[in-house]
Write a structure and sequence with these properties.
The protein has about 70 residues and is mainly alpha-helical. The chain has a domain at about 20-60. Helix content is about 85%, strand content about 0%.
């Protein structure tokens, strides 16, 4: 039984990565936009970061329980 659980572990990890990949890419993109704006003009970076955080919060609040799978 332990062999079977050890074999299934990598697939569970890959499933978790696939489930979170889109969210992680969105977060990484938001961070890059905010940092890029901050490199041009520091207050613009804070404003862009805040706006992207608000947008992310709205998207998370509208997301149905279970995500794409449910």
């Amino acid at each position: 039984m332990d062999e079977r659980r050890a074999r299934d572990k990598p697939s569970r990890i890959l499933d978790a990565v696939r489930a979170w990949a889109a969210d992680l890419l969105l977060i990484a993109g938001a961070v890059m936009v905010a940092v890029g704006a901050g490199l041009i003009y520091v207050p613009a970076g804070w404003i862009a970061g805040g706006a992207l955080a608000i947008a992310g919060g709205v998207l998370a609040a509208k997301e149905e329980p279970g995500g794409d799978d449910g």
